[in-house]
Amino acid sequence: MTLKEIIENFKKERLSQIPDDVKAIMMKATEELINSGIENQLPKVGEKIFDFTLPNYDGKEVRLGELLENGPVVLNFYRGGWCPYCNLQLNYLQSRLDDFKKYGAVLVAVSPELPDMAASTVDRHSIKFYVLSDVDNRVAKKLGLVFKLPDEVVSIYKKLGHDLEKYNGNNKYEIPVPATFVIDKDFTIRYSFGKADYTQRAEPDDIIEVLKTLQ
Questions:
Q1: Rounded CA separation 20/4 (Å)
Q2: Cα–Cα distances in angstroms (integers) from residue 192 to residues 45, 87, 140, 155, 203, in the given order
Q3: Which of 9, 133, 184, 196 is the most buried (most CB within 10 A)?
Q4: How confident is the model at residue 9 (pLDDT cuts 50, 70, 90)?
Q5: pLDDT digit string (tens) for 45-86?
Q6: Which stretches within 49-106 are classed as H helix?
């Protein structure tokens, strides 16, 4: 199954369990985010990304430039380990890791979570790729990915047990839109995908097609 098919199946089941008033609030928030034009802020194919250094879940510093010395990087921004759609994506990416490696690519996932929280996500999914902590969304903000969750959505997340203050180490309630980039060795973006609708994610098969062109 494709990642899209897995997400769609989960989404149908998920929505059937959510009260209509909650669904209405969530849908309204997504529509407002789409209308904000945040997707237009994303870096585009052909543009160059800046170098950055972030801590991996194990505390080791990781610099994008060093990774690019060995080949392209698939850079995936996700909301957090509390998000079920992010967990589906991370699990699927792990299942396709060998496919990325076949084309010399390094897979890197980034979230605003504290390293300890990221480590929990890594353990839960037996992740074997980099999972970096972009605390306070320092890198994601420069890429135009970050927005503040509406108060109504924050209340819903709290009721669901999603304690973002605990996960992110602050009370800003700022998260990135899910986005995926393929970065060439010269820092050029060869693939860019990001959607205000957090249930939409980059399809690994599409990413691999781009990686094939970089051989």
A1: 24
A2: 6, 20, 14, 32, 11
A3: 133
A4: very high
A5: 999 999 999 999 999 999 999 999 999 999 999 999 999 999
A6: 64-68, 84-95, 97-102
